[in-house]
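Sample pair:
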Amino acid sequence: MTGAEAAGELVTGALVAGAVERHAGARHGGGDHASLCLNCGTALLGDYCHRCGQPEHIHRSLSAIWHDLAHGVLHFEGKIWNTLPLLVWRPGELTRRFIHGERARFVSPMALFLFSVFLMFATFGAIGAHLEIPDNTPPTAAAQSSAKAAIPKVEAEVEALKAQLRATKDPGKAEALKSREDEARRELASLRQIASWQPGRFTGLKTGWLHLDEGFAKANKNPNLALYKMQSSAYKYSWALILLSTPFLWLLYAWHRKYKVYDHAVFVTYSLSFMSLLVIALTLLSKAGLGEDAVALAALGIPPLHIYRQLRGAYGTRRRWALLRTMLLVAFATITLTVFFLLLFAVGALG
């Protein structure tokens, strides 16, 4: 995806999210005036129709199109700046306040989710991030035999270098020996990989469903194409994560009748929005040079902490029970992602 295409994805995401968002508190100066609502015909009592919510003032100018575009992309009706800080630092408070009625102040969960998903894939497209698997081309029988024959010789070389390194007291010589030992170890690892190669992927996999088996055969022949199809389809079906995740959260509070399924869906959708934004941030930081260990630590540590804080703030759960539910939700999230990727793969194989 080119930079222009990525920008287009971002604009599309903002406009889709803006379309989902309800227009609350926006004023439209200029335009046509009417005593009846032009949308539903109700007599107007103020600047907005009290029946359908449409503003009295409407635009019919070219500049209005650009205004709506800029409004949808940049402003989110100003609510994005009320929403993002709470989403990051106090997600439970955001969830609770939205559920209890503060709808005009914050971006709705679905609008934020749509925008974050579009933004994530636009970012991937802009920086050229995509999934790949290493080449699994089988070595020749001669190469495997040669590797197996060379392994004992290289193992003996590694042991000899280790003995020399222990015996030497010269720092310069020790450094040279250490360098040679590291090189020999890398060679040994490569030889062992060649010698132990086994066919991978979906070799011999049969489900009995002819169309699906043909898809598996194509994926086995060109796995990177299958991964590309999965990545391309992921944002189209990302909404399925909400449907897959909500029942698990409901199970954790099934005996609390004051919490409705809607409440759990809001929790899940805001949580998924944050996770999408976290993926974007970590991807950009990794691209900027942040170490792999730091990125991995953040990817493993931040999501459970965010879920814990959201549980505490949204449901008022005590620390001990919030910690237990966090661990269960992390396990459920692993199951959900596994099912989601299997569905994506099946869709790609059948497509």
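The chain is about 70% helix and 0% strand.
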